[in-house]
Design goal:
- The complex is a heterodimer of chains A (194) and B (240).
- Chain A is mostly helical and 194 residues long.
- Chain A has two domains: 87 residues, Orthogonal Bundle (Arc Repressor Mutant, subunit A), CATH 1.10.10.10; 82 residues.
- Chain A is built from eight helices and two strands; from the N terminus they run αααββααααα.
- A two-stranded antiparallel ribbon of chain A has the order 1-2.
- Chain A is elongated and about 70 Å long.
- Chain B has one domain: P-loop containing nucleotide triphosphate hydrolases (Rossmann fold), CATH 3.40.50.300.
- In chain B, 35% of the residues lie in helices and 25% in strands.
- Chain B has a six-stranded mixed sheet with strand order 6-7-8-3-9-10. In chain B, strands 2-1-4-5 form a four-stranded antiparallel sheet, covered by helices on one side.
- In chain B, α5 packs parallel to α6.
- The longest helix of chain B is centred in the last third of the chain and has 18 residues.
- The chains are: A mainly alpha (194), B alpha/beta (240).
- At the A-B interface, α6 and α7 of A face α7 and β10 of B.
- Bound molecules: adenosine-5'-diphosphate and magnesium ion (MG).
- Magnesium ion (MG) binds next to α1 of chain B.
- Adenosine-5'-diphosphate binds next to β2 and α1 of chain B.
Chain lengths: 194, 240
């Protein structure tokens, strides 16, 4: 998550104080990425060093801090950010995929149990996200977008886990029960693939 | 609060000996008033069997099923039928509406079968249609409605009168994602506001997430569950 670009985006309209940026950042993202004020000032200091923002002359707040304003270089940087798709490689490595791969490789690890535990945990987050959505029928669109992005991600992870489980079963076979006993006459083939 | 649906040690076996298919094995589940429980699992894992047993449409091989305190196994055939008409509502993926009847007539049908006079049944049906937000479609026939509207009629039929238990078998399976979500909101509201107990079978994690608890079936066995309710933890079985 790029705090740097988030702050630049918030400064596009007018100069703002650090505390104001923090509040607006959390408002826009539904407080899903809480920022502490220290992170905001550290980022602003770096942005200032790189010439992307500068301290505005007036007015100065009670604590002596001034507002920050975006520079032309900052606007150019922001434009590039919006124009460039986020690449999957720029995201952190997927710990879950690595964990499952290693669980498969390690003898004595019950991979199905790992999958089921993860699925239950991810479902629980999905339930919490859904509760947030439920309570917020007329929510702000920016916040709903962020919420939906997390819902889609959780949903995708669960589907991927279902897929892993099905692959594991196929890989190992099911010697205890002959497959023909499990053939459901009216089975919907699309259903089986989900 | 005592459970509306209380399933204890439910086993359902089709056939016997070598050929036996264990559709459900020793499944226990209690659903409290106002609670919505989702059941997930691959095709053939026993989800529909769980619902048909809970609704008195199929008989357990062993185990107990109590609906509103009545043990389905010990009730006579006609008492089960009456319980089904009065207390239990079903919603299926393919809606199961009667094409020759209007929305209101479809919804009123279970009441009329149960001896309610036509005019009174119509009133209840209109109230149920209003609750699911489609009272203006009362006189329309199913073929003149969208999938989402038909599913709302089916839900109205499942909640009409004084239903306590709502059983929904893949109710969103034939709907697009947005319409499906609206159906879930509706089921959720019914449970929250009217103290109905709901059991929902779905393939869609996004829809299951509307439930208080999500149960996982594998080959007829409950293998785990997700849900923030502390009471749920005691039922958790990590794996077989
Ligand atoms: N009448 C029946 N006779 C024999 N086997 C059946 C019958 N009904 C269901 N089954 C079997 O019981 C298992 C569970 O079926 P079902 O409850 O329909 O699963 P799901 O709804 O999860 O797809 C399946 O293996 C199915 O083939
Ligand atoms: Mg089924």
């Amino acid at each position: 998550m790029s705090i740097k670009h988030g702050l630049l985006a918030l400064l596009r309209e007018e100069p703002k104080y650090g505390y104001q940026l923090r509040g607006e950042f959390e408002e826009a993202t539904g407080a899903i990425w809480p920022l502490n004020i220290g992170q905001v000032y550290t980022t602003l200091t770096r942005l200032e060093r790189d010439g992307l923002v500068r301290a505005a002359a007036e007015p100065v707040a009670d604590d002596g801090r001034s507002r920050y304003e975006i520079t032309d270089a900052g606007r150019a940087e922001l434009a590039v950010w919006f124009e460039t798709p986020v690449t999957r490689e720029s995201r952190p490595r997927d710990e879950l995929a690595i964990k499952l791969a290693l669980a498969l490789a390690a003898p004595g690890v019950d991979v199905s149990a790992v999958v089921q535990r993860q699925r239950a945990a991810t479902m629980q987050s999905l339930q919490e996200l859904t509760r947030l959505k439920r309570g917020d029928r007329e929510g702000e669109i920016s916040w709903l977008l962020v919420l939906e992005s997390m819902i889609f991600a959780a949903e995708a992870e669960i589907r991927w886990l279902d897929h892993c489980e099905a692959m594991l079963l196929r890989h190992r076979g099911r010697p205890a029960k002959p497959p023909e006993q499990y053939a459901e006459p009216a089975a919907d083939p699309a259903e089986a693939n989900r | 609060m005592s459970a509306i649906l209380d399933i204890r040690g439910l086993t359902r076996t089709h056939g016997a000996g070598e050929q036996a298919v264990h559709a459900l094995r020793d499944v226990s589940l209690a659903v409290a008033p106002g609670e919505l429980v989702a059941v997930m699992g691959p095709s053939g894992s026993g989800k529909s069997t769980l619902l048909t047993c809970a609704g008195g449409l199929d008989q357990p091989t062993s185990g107990e099923i109590l609906v509103d305190g009545n043990d389905i196994a010990t009730l006579g055939r006609s008492a089960v039928a009456a319980l089904r008409r009065r207390r239990i509502g079903y919603v299926f993926q393919d809606f199961n509406l009667i094409p020759a009847l209007t929305a209101a007539e479809n919804v009123a049908l279970p009441l009329e079968l149960d001896g309610t006079r036509t005019r009174a049944a119509r009133k209840y049906a209109e109230a149920a249609l209003q609750e699911v937000g489609i009272d203006e479609l009362a006189d329309r026939f199913p073929e003149d409605m969208s999938g989402g509207q038909r599913q709302r009629v089916a839900i109205a039929r499942a909640i009409v009168g004084e239903r306590r238990l709502l059983l929904a078998d893949e109710p969103t399976g034939a709907l697009d994602s947005e319409t499906g979500e609206a159906v879930l909101r509706l089921l959720r509201d019914r449970c929250d506001q009217h103290g109905i107990a709901g059991v929902l079978v779905t393939h869609d994690a996004r829809h299951a997430a509307w439930a208080d608890r999500v149960l996982y079936l594998r080959d007829g066995v409950l293998v785990g569950q997700a849900g923030p309710l502390p009471a749920a933890d005691s039922l958790l079985q990590e794996s077989r």
